[in-house]
Design brief:
alpha+beta; 1020 residues; seven-stranded mixed sheet; globular; Isoleucyl-tRNA Synthetase, domain 2
């Protein structure tokens, strides 16, 4: 009998699927445990070995909890809407729904490429997912509920008095009875007061416009990240170094009318909720910083010669007498109004320039100082002095009010700005308002030990006293008040894409109307192309059937739009985070057609007990999902305030990239004394070396080959050089021996790791056949004629050609080997490099495990009573593995398995009483071989829910001790003695031992040192 992982794993995966072994029940008497993975985006590249890391960890934990008697919900699905699928569709001329389906289910795409499919890849690894609950966010039966949640948000407002979302009808009732003067709501800043009579007299259209200013999802002109190359708005986390993460296209800031979500209404609850969840402190801190709570004051600076004023939020109102200038964000709405004619050209040029920088780039760049004077002046609230108003890109339109009162003596950026523009356009000298503080070299930003000076009625006060007094004074003159501010901004919810959830919205006279929930889903229409229309409308503008018939309650041809009964539908789609902001609740009741989940299912599962996923989602998905959960809790749907009790961020498995080094020679041409670098365009050959310092060694070889193969290219280059005009005859006479290489540089080129063996040797023929321009490559190899690649640990990525697929590992070694190896690599939360060479050791361990149970002739398990050592090895492992899984220290469990199997092998243990529980203990990690061994032992059914063995401490209690016996501190032999012996008894036994008598050779020791349970030492 032989260990054949492929045969065993196929057998048990089929068994699990047929018997629905891992199906969770919504009405079980068992205690529940909900384990969730951040579901994958099904890209065309499929899974690499880095992707399953978190899934394996969650699967080990899920299987362990089943062994403990829990009803475990461990589902899986696909976050299948998004920009990558749309871009792939545009590039290949395929429908995104088709490519997404193939990427999930497997098949052959339009280009003839065979796609394994996520589902098959996941199944091959042996995950214990409840596949009956699978969700795909791009399926209409899923996103109809996303559309329904959007409608609920639209029909809600946030009541600050009750600190929760309420139905918009309650707000309308207040307006009808008493107007809006006493309404304590999260709403737009430009709300105008009206009485009940005025409200009731407003036309319906006017009422709808007012309600839009209060709704939790609303239309507004918003500053967004616009990517012309992709034709869509991007979220901050979709931009890297000022360009789109997808495609590397430039991104600019642009104002557009967009749907937004009033996540800011939940800022304080999102902040406080972090105290109630078991997440890493680093993730909590990321969210705290993103929410950015600040306590301070709003101050109004009136503009000279204008009825307008600049509102500023500041955390240091105590420094108001130190204001020497003001800075507005370039996008601030007042900039166009206040800029003087003389400054207009300069201001507009600056705005155009800064629009090309993302907010993240502007926030991160603390060194660059730039700005432009608007020509306008504000007035100090108390001194009435003129204050020049500048614009600068270090101020962001979305943070605070998009304006700062600049106090250079107390802020480093203001200090640098003031010094940079010193003496220009009314930039005043820096005022020092701190007593006994030197600001000649830097600003003083501390609040501690502050004594305010040169500040009129604040002189002599500390920070707290001055803050309290100035807020009171501002309120007295009607130019300010105390305020708590949050950095968190309302989330833009529109995307100019095709492949996303359609909004359940149509427009009557430009105002949004919700489609009744009973008519959902509103399904994506067919379009000929997925690019924006010629006049710049989103891709849905290409749809010919995309209008709403309000009488038939159906989507009809756009040609029928009459704005009487048939109206235009929304052309934008929802962002990628829409479907992922509530998916864990759908898993609770995934087959429910009438609602996103029944109250009974929601009440039973409540929330996710363990969530495993990447830390890169800290301020995206994890924040948005908490927001939606809190909203649904307010509306009586979600049973808990927080969606995820415990969160673990798995580290990244890094790829071991392989490199060849392309030699770029610097050429000297004798006679002409011409020196120049020989770029690939000037030469028909390049060399590749594995070492940077091989030039001198191979200088003659390189020179000769370059001369022979590139002479014509070199001549052509020289003939076109201006400095050599008129020397054509000399150039034509250049001979091979006139050309030499005097220096080289090298650049690293990624190589597909599939061309490299475990000894880092490159398959030269495969490399040459890889790309057309590598066919003539010459290699500088080592003394054995082998080319050894360079190695570097990097992110595993298709673009770096360092991807290892789990399919290859499973085919060669089996899924159990892959699972154990990924857990063995290191602590779950840490990044670690992948090294395929280590796989064979784990595979060898599994074969050794099997040899405890069977040999080539079959089962060798006996009913012999286990020995004391057998029991000790087993119970050490039970204890260690249980503790490790509970603390998510999976790597040390694998080490313990190896120790245990080695010990049992040395003990020649084949006892059923040991090997049966051992199969259960190893089952969460290596479920296929555990199932097979369980079956071979004569058990029926699956091992998956068999109770986990109980640790018995008695088997670890030592009854004897292997003592080292030393003479004058040098150990000479060991002796095994019972631990309950006294010093006297130990000494008597040792002194009578033949080995002691031989060592002493008739002498009597001066002293016998005995520490029971530790040492025996005879001295003298």
């Amino acid at each position: 009998m032989k260990y054949n992982p492929n045969e065993i794993e196929a057998k048990w995966q089929k068994y699990w699927a047929e018997h629905k072994t891992f199906a969770a029940k919504n009405d079980s008497d068992k205690p529940k445990h909900y384990v969730l993975d951040m579901f994958p985006y099904p890209s065309g590249a499929g899974l690499h070995v880095g992707h399953p890391l978190g899934y394996i960890a969650s699967d080990v934990y899920s299987r362990y909890k089943r062994h403990q008697g829990f009803n475990v919900l461990h589902p899986m699905g696909y976050d299948s809407f998004g920009l990558p699928a749309e871009q792939y569709a545009i590039q290949t001329g395929q429908r995104p729904e088709d490519t997404t389906s193939v990427n999930i289910d497997g098949g052959v795409d339009k280009e003839g490429k065979v796609i394994a499919g996520y589902r098959k890849q996941l199944d091959k690894i042996g995950f214990s997912f409840d596949w009956d609950r699978e969700v795909r966010t791009s399926n209409p039966d899923y996103y109809k509920h996303t559309q329904w949640i959007f409608i609920q948000l639209f029909n809600s407002w946030y009541n600050k008095s009750t600190d929760k979302a309420e139905d918009i009808s309650t707000l309308v009732a207040v307006f009808s009875a008493e107007g809006n003067a006493n309404v304590n709501a999260v709403c737009d800043d430009t709300i105008e007061l009206f009485s009940a009579d005025e409200w009731n007299a407003f036309a319906k259209e006017q009422q709808e416009k007012i309600l839009l200013q209060y709704r939790l999802t609303y239309l507004a002109e918003t500053e967004v990240n616009w990517c012309p190359g992709l034709g869509t708005v991007l979220a901050n986390d979709e931009i890297v170094n000022g360009v789109s993460e997808r495609g590397g296209y430039p991104v600019i800031r642009k104002k557009m009318t967009q749907w937004s979500m009033r996540i800011s209404a939940y800022a304080e609850r999102l902040l406080q909720g972090l105290n109630d969840i078991d997440w890493s402190e680093s993730i909590k801190e990321s969210q705290r910083n993103w929410i950015g709570k600040s306590v301070g004051a709003m101050v109004d600076f009136r503009l000279q010669n204008s009825e307008s004023s600049i509102s500023v939020f500041t955390t240091r109102p105590d420094t108001i007498f130190g204001v020497t200038f003001m800075t507005l964000a370039p996008e601030h709405e007042l900039v166009a109004q206040i800029t003087t004619a003389e400054q207009k050209a300069e201001v507009e040029a600056y705005i155009e320039k800064t629009a090309k920088r993302s907010e993240r780039e502007r926030m991160a760049d603390v060194k660059t100082i730039s700005g432009v004077f608007t020509g306008a002046f504000a007035e100090h609230p108390f001194t009435k002095e003129p204050i020049p108003v500048w614009i600068g890109d270090y101020v962001l339109a979305g943070y605070g009010t998009g304006a700062v009162m600049a106090v250079p003596c107390g802020d480093e950026r203001d200090y640098a700005f003031a010094n940079f523009f010193k003496g220009q356009n009314g930039m005043q000298e820096i005022k020092n308002i701190f007593a006994n503080v030197d600001i000649s070299k830097e600003a003083f930003g501390s609040k501690d030990n502050v004594e305010i000076a040169n500040s009129d009625f604040l002189n002599g006060l500390n920070y707290k006293e001055a803050t309290k007094k100035i807020i009171s004074a501002l309120e007295d003159i009607g130019q300010g008040k105390g305020k708590i501010n949050y950095r968190l901004r309302d989330a833009v919810f529109s995307r100019q894409r095709y492949w996303g959830e359609p909004f359940p919205v149509y427009y009557v006279n430009g105002l949004p109307q919700m489609i009744d929930a009973k008519h959902l889903p509103i399904v994506l229409p067919e379009v000929e192309k997925y690019l924006p229309t010629e006049d710049g409308l989103p891709p849905l503008g290409n749809a010919t059937v995309w209008a709403w018939d309000s009488l038939q309650n159906a989507v009809v041809s756009t040609q029928l739009i009459d704005n009487v009964n048939i109206f235009p539908l929304e052309l934008n789609t929802m962002p990628g985070w829409a479907g992922s902001s509530w998916y864990w609740m759908r898993y609770m009741d995934a087959q429910n057609e009438g609602e996103f989940a029944s109250k009974e299912a929601l009440a039973y599962w409540e929330s996710v007990d363990l969530y495993i996923g990447g830390s890169e989602h800290a301020t995206g998905h994890l924040l948005y999902s908490r927001f939606w959960n809190k909203f649904l809790k307010d509306k009586g749907f979600a049973p808990t305030e927080e969606p995820f009790k415990k969160l673990i961020n798995q580290g990244m498995i890094l790829g071991m990239s392989a490199f060849v080094y392309r030699v770029l020679p610097f050429i000297h041409v004798k006679g002409l004394d011409a020196r120049f670098p020989l770029s690939p365009e000037k030469s028909s050959v390049f060399f590749i070396t594995s070492k940077y310092n091989d030039f001198e060694k191979y200088k003659d070889v390189i020179s000769k080959s370059v001369a022979e193969k590139s002479i014509n290219g070199i001549k052509k280059y020289l003939l076109n050089e201006e400095a050599l005009q008129g020397r054509d005859e000399e150039i034509e006479k250049i001979k091979i021996e006139d050309i030499s290489v005097f220096q080289i540089s090298t650049n690293a080129i990624h190589v597909d790791v599939s061309m490299v063996n475990s000894s880092d040797e490159l398959d030269l023929e495969k490399f040459k056949a890889w790309r057309e321009d590598y066919v003539d490559a010459e290699f500088i190899c080592d003394e054995n004629g082998k080319y050894i690649v360079g190695r570097e640990v990097e992110k595993m990525s298709k673009s770096k050609y360092n991807v290892v697929t789990p399919d290859d590992i499973c085919n060669e070694y089996g899924a159990d080997t892959l699972r154990l190896y990924e857990m063995f690599l290191g602590p779950l939360e840490q990044a670690k490099p992948w090294n395929t060479a280590g796989i064979s050791g784990v595979f060898g361990f599994l074969k050794k495990l099997c040899r405890l149970y069977f040999d080539e002739n079959g089962l060798i398990v006996t009913n012999d009573e286990p020995t004391k050592d057998n029991l000790k090895s087993l119970h050490k492992t039970i204890k260690k593995v249980a503790e490790d899984i509970e603390s998510f220290s999976f790597n040390t469990s694998v080490s313990q398995f190896m120790i245990c199997v080695n010990e049992l092998s040395a003990q020649n243990c084949h006892s059923r009483a040991i090997l049966e529980p051992l199969a259960i203990v190893i089952s969460p990690y290596a479920p296929h071989i555990a199932e097979e061994l369980w079956s071979l032992l004569g058990n029926t059914g699956s091992i998956a829910t068999v109770p986990f063995p109980v640790f018995e401490a008695v088997h670890l209690v030592e009854s004897d001790k292997e003592y080292p016996v030393s003479f004058n501190g040098k150990m000479r032999f060991t002796i095994n003695l019972p631990l309950d012996l006294t010093k006297e008894q130990i000494e008597e036994i040792v002194m009578k031992d033949e080995r002691t008598i031989k060592q002493l050779d008739g002498k009597t020791p001066n002293k016998v040192i005995i520490v029971p349970g530790k040492i025996i030492n005879l001295v003298g």
